[in-house]
Amino acid sequence: MGSSEADNNVRPAEKSLDFIRTIIGEDLKANKNDGRVATRFPPEPNGYLHIGHAKSICLNFGIAAEYGGTCNLRYDDTNPTKEEVEYVESIQEDVHWLGFDWGDRRFFASDYFERLYQYAIELIRAGKAYVDSLSAEEIRAYRGTLTEPGKDSPYRGRSVEKNLDLFQRMREGEFPDGAHVLRARIDMQSPNLNMRDPTIYRIRHASHHRTGDTWCIYPMYDFTHGLSDAIEGITHSICTLEFEDHRPLYDWFLDNLDVPCHPRQIEFARLNLNYTVMSKRKLLELVADGIVRGWDDPRMPTICGLRRRGYTPESIRSFCDRIGVAKKENVIDVALLEHAIREDLNRRARRVMCVLRPLRLVIDNYSEPGVEELEAVNNPEDPTAGTRKIPFSRELYIEHEDFSEQPPPKYHRLAPGRTVRLRYSYLITCTGLVKNERGEVTEVHCSYHPDSLNPQAADVPKAKATVHWVSAPHAVGIEARLYERLFSVEDPGAQPEGKNWKAHINPDSLVVLPGCRCEPSLAAAKLGDLFQFERLGYFCMDPDSTPAAPVFNRTVTLKDAWARIQKAHQAPQPGR
Ligand code: ATP
Ligand code: MG
């Protein structure tokens, strides 16, 4: 593709470009890489993807789409002991679900093991790699520190022949784990620790999820990553900031080997969210310790957890778009993620009525056995969503907290003698109540105002509140699961070495309400349907549901903390 053609694909000028897109635009103008743009998303299949990965996915696949380029899905699978097929499959499912497609461009670093081995030989032949027989501990001690230079290993001067011989025997399985490593011969005095003769191969007698027992030596990440990029013809290798200090090494391998191209590594700030931990190691610990019910627990920041919670791919993409890409570490308020899903669901979710903590309400002046069908709006934000009929009868359920025997100041909902509007229905006035032996209110009695459906009716009382309800004999029983943030502190990872991070689990992060009552239309709900339970929040069906016992997750409440924060501070968008 010529650069002029590529230019046509560049995002419209009015959208301000982030620094990565600016670099790519300049490279295209200079006709670098013959005007090609090729990115990749390179997960290590050692866990499930999280919202941080979503940022990287949106960035890499997004750039490819905007510039008419390609984006590879590449598994960085060089660590046989931590990687599993389960993770490989979940990653694909999640990338697809987010709305991206790698077409036939799915690759595995393990497919390059033979080529990588040959590259290592090339380095040895050029005197640029050697087999070291120091122990791991000795290698660490010889490496020096940030303030002290390293020391040459006594094996650094091994001859090319000796190195070739040993490396081949390493491959053939002659030595136990840790007996030798292959190291790049760079500079033990370098101020950059990554350049002090980094290990590029180690012995691991372990089965790999794809190559089985073919190999007992495995290439290290830094060696593998850049070479895989070059093998695939990647033009822009976008990664997170912690790799900035590795860039000289990335470039060194490409400069010292006969590779098909030299991709450009660009680093950006990873996504950090408050009230959230985001390392796969910690997420795995939450799962392994049973603190959550699995990788897809709706409290997890994993893609599958967010999906189960009711997040839509659109909302996650819009969130990633909004946070943008920056060169400096920052922490994003999780309220912004919640804002993004609210915004999406507000447009799309069908409104229904459900009572989470039911209180029986009897309308004494409603003639038995009358049932009426009242009309309710499915989505006020979407005129095409239409209306539905909901049954009204003498016995209803309302929310326990919508009744107060002794209403505190500013409480405008139902109380003895008070009138409220039933959503899509009549005005009712409370005439009495029933208590159990513990003194708890178990039933409320009301009378209704037959004229109050007519907005023009003159002689009806005034109501200061509208409450939701369901008809008791028609109600569908469900279990609702309400979620709060998993951590009760903003930065659970901040403790020294992150040691105490699990001490800050929020004990109320999951509340299960088994006895909820919903309007009958919910009986037809399917997995994937999106609902707003009026006044309570957005909900979706959970895969734990059975026809007899449906379960619904609350995705998010209706209170938009982000909109409030923004209004208070007139804050600019973060990350830009
Ligand atoms: P973690 O630190 O969560 O274990 P990782 O970096 O080890 O993540 P990889 O599988 O190596 O996980 O990540 C695949 C890609 O996703 C990498 O390019 C990485 O830079 C990117 N990535 C990982 N975490 C984030 C994040 N929080 N924000 C943005 N990109 C991320
Ligand atoms: Mg990584």
Structure overview:
The chain has 576 residues and is α/β, with parallel strands linked by helices. The chain has 3 domains: 1-104 and 220-332, 3-Layer(aba) Sandwich (Rossmann fold); 117-218, Glutamyl-tRNA Synthetase, Domain 3 (Glutamyl-tRNA Synthetase, domain 3, Alpha-Beta Complex), CATH 3.90.800; 354-475, Ribosomal Protein L25, Chain P, CATH 2.40.240.10. It is built from 14 helices and 25 strands. It has helices spanning 3-9, 19-29, 51-66, 85-98, 113-125, 136-143, 160-171, 221-232, 247-256, 280-288, 303-309, 313-323, 334-348, 561-569; strands spanning 38-41, 70-75, 106-108, 129-132, 181-184, 199-203, 217-219, 236-240, 264-268, 350-352, 354-355, 358-363, 372-377, 387-392, 395-399, 419-422, 427-435, 441-448, 466-467, 469-471, 476-483, 510-518, 530-533, 537-541, 551-556. The strands form 6 sheets. It has a 7-stranded mixed sheet with strand order 10-23-24-25-21-22-11, with helices on one face. β8, α9 (247-256) and β9 (264-268) form a beta-alpha-beta unit. The chain starts with a helix and ends in a 7-residue tail after the last helix. 39% of the residues are buried. Bound molecules: adenosine-5'-triphosphate and magnesium ion (MG). The site of adenosine-5'-triphosphate has 14 residues, from α3 and β8.
